[in-house]
Amino acid sequence: MAPRKPPGVTFETFIEAQIRRAQEAGDFDHLPGEGKPLGKAGHRYDPDWWAKQLVNREKLSILPASLEIRREVEKGLATLAKLRNEQEVRDRIRELNAKILKINSQASVGPPSTQPLLDEEAEVERWRQAKDGLR
After folding, report:
1. CA-CA distance, 100 to 116, in Å (whole number)?
2. What is the pLDDT of residues 20-49, one digit of tens each?
3. Is the four-CA dihedral 33, 48, 54, 57 of positive or negative sign?
4. 110: alpha, beta or left? (left if phi > 0; alpha if psi -120 to 50)
5. If we measure between CA atoms, which residue out of 120, 27, 118, 35 comes closest to residue 70?
6. Does residue 124 sit in helix, strand or coil?
7. Main-chain dihedrals φ then ψ at residue 42, nearest 5 degrees
8. Model pTM greater than 0.70?
């Protein structure tokens, strides 16, 4: 148990004396994290820190559905080139179009969805050209 502050001694003096004795005794030598920056040093307090960490850790999306579908379509189109055959491309485009239809048909919070349906034939043709260009 820590010693009590003697009467007539200021807290600052009492605490400084305890720190000095601990330093002289080597109590602060080789502590875990020595030489590493302090987490959150220099940052202002954010009352929503826990929610932001949860979103980052769990890779959650907090976008309205109308904006999330745009991101999903963009990612989906970017992955078409990695697909092996035309049927996989068509299936992926149909899957994206089904999601677009669902989002476009719902009333949502936030901006309305203006994502147009994907043209299956045009996307398949683009996939073919990309595949031919790689050969």
Report:
1. 7
2. 999 999 998 988 888 887 776 667 888 888
3. negative
4. left
5. 118
6. helix
7. 85, 0
8. no
